[in-house]
Amino acid sequence: VPLTSVFLDLPLLTGDEVEHAPYTAISGSPWPGSVAIYQSPTDTGFSLNTLVSARSSIGFTKTSLPRARSGLVDVGPALEVEMIHGTLESTSDTALVNGSNLVAIGDGSPDNWELLQFRDAEMIAPGRYLLSHRLRDQLGSDAVGPEIWPEESWIVVMNGAPSQIELARSLRRVAQTYRVGPSRRSYDDPSYEEFVLAFDGNGLRPYRPVHLRAQRNGAQLYVSWIRRTRLDGDDWDLPDVPLAEDSESYTVRVLQNAGVMREEVVNAQSWTYNDVDRIADGVTGQFSIAVAQNSARYGPGPFAQLMTAS
Fold first, then answer.
1. What is the mean pLDDT of the chain?
2. Closest among 135, 151, 131, 113 to 24, alpha carbons compared
3. Residue 184: which of 45, 35, 63, 309 has the closest Cα?
């Protein structure tokens, strides 16, 4: 019987992971005891990538989940989920703020996952739960995902069972063929499922900047923002969070009518757009400013965007 398998290219969860390697979560009934993941650049010549012994807790949503503001507790309607394997339970406020009950919700593609936490889990039927008092868009996942997660979205419990596969740095963003199945059988057995996937290495992805502001000062528009960090950002004794990149760099874009009218790279958390440049760009009326932090290995991260006017 084919297994239930999903690959997750996630941001860093603890900072101790291989930054560019994706996770895989695998479940099945009956559980074969050990699962093999084979890899090939084509559809022949497979070699063993990883052996997975832990069965992941995987489920699907039975109600939709609208987007909510990160940094605040989401007290919207409870999210109903049905687990195909694994159980869920409530936690305390203290455990919640220390990372307990972390799950990924997504559409099953490698990139499109939101990380959220929940405090309360109410069992309403065998394998069915209502999840409430949620912390949304955790660990920099606020920049991905739709306005609403529909019914039948994937739920993967990030409790240590999902594990990273091996991925050479040179193979980041390079499509590979993977076959997943019981380790006691050959990779060409019908019980194996095949995936052709490429991974961006989202553990390297900078977080989206916050507090983007624009203030006019005469013939200039002064734009400022605050960066975040994907590593060691919880030490409140430091004057600022660590940079976590080789150098400080941001891409700034001026957007109008879905077009990029100007793009510049700056090395500080501010930028000035003067009227001479704006007129030369042909920008009038309302337009948008977008800012992303750059990574030497990943490129620009997600853009924060602000609507302003000339």
1. 96
2. 113
3. 35
